[in-house]
């Protein structure tokens, strides 16, 4: 005859915390999408990104959205999405501090005179974002939008990996 298990001596508050943690862990969701995006220069909240994840977002009450751009001559950032002058002024600033063309001092020119400046601009803004998800929506400020910044002179097809996780 098998011995009965020893009595559980874990305090009730620890048992309850463990139960809740396990329930949350089982409810935790990870989801990943690879989205094709094509933009010209700087675009606020590219529709390909929002349309690609809108339905998926609705399944999350609380979580994080991680966006990763798989390129070195474009970037992602969050900035004002209301006044298009902000985008124009940002591009003007970037072009002044990172010149392009044959008179620019760059050695890396195999892919064209706009390629090295695009790499530098990409490094300045970065290629990833982390945005909170609240009640099925990206939880950004009123005036904030996701910018996909195309730093090459000609629009190029870009790929963005979006990873959603939460409950």
Textual characterization of the structure:
The protein has helices at 12-27, 47-57, 84-97, 115-125; strands at 29-38, 42-44, 62-69, 74-80, 128-134, 137-138, 144-150, 157-166. A hairpin with a 2-residue loop joins strand 5 and strand 6 (137-138). A five-stranded antiparallel β-sheet has the order 1-8-3-5-6, with helices on one face. Strands 2-7-4 form a three-stranded antiparallel β-sheet. The protein contains four helices and eight strands. The mean pLDDT is 89. It is of the alpha+beta class.
Distance from first to last alpha carbon: 44 Å
How many extended strands? 8
Overall pLDDT: 89
Share of residues in strands: 25-35%
Q: Could you give the order of the helices and strands?
A: HEEHEEHHEEEE
- Can you tell me the residue ranges where pLDDT is under 50 for at least 5 consecutive residues? none
Spatial order of strands in the largest sheet: 1-8-3-5-6
- The total count of helices amounts to 4
Overall outline: elongated
Helix content, binned percent: 25-40%
Secondary-structure class = alpha+beta
- Please describe the biggest sheet, giving its number of strands, its sense, and whether it closes into a barrel: 5 strands, antiparallel
Q: Which value, in Å, is the CA radius of gyration?
A: 23 Å
């Amino acid at each position: 005859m098998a011995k009965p298990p020893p009595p559980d001596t874990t305090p009730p508050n620890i048992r309850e915390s463990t139960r809740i943690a396990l329930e949350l862990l089982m409810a935790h969701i990870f989801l990943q999408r690879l989205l094709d995006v094509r933009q010209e220069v700087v675009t606020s909240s590219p529709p390909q990104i929002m349309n690609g994840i809108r339905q998926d977002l609705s399944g999350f009450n609380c979580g994080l959205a991680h966006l990763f751009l798989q390129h070195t001559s474009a970037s992602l950032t969050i900035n004002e999405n209301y006044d298009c002058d902000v985008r124009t002024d940002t591009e003007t600033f970037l072009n002044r501090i990172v010149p392009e063309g044959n008179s620019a001092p760059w050695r890396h020119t195999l892919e064209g005179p706009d390629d090295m400046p695009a790499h530098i601009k990409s490094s300045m803004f970065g290629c990833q974002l982390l945005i909170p998800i609240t009640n099925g929506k990206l939880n950004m400020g009123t005036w904030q939008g996701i910018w996909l910044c195309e730093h090459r002179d000609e629009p190029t097809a870009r790929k963005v990996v979006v990873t959603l996780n939460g409950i």
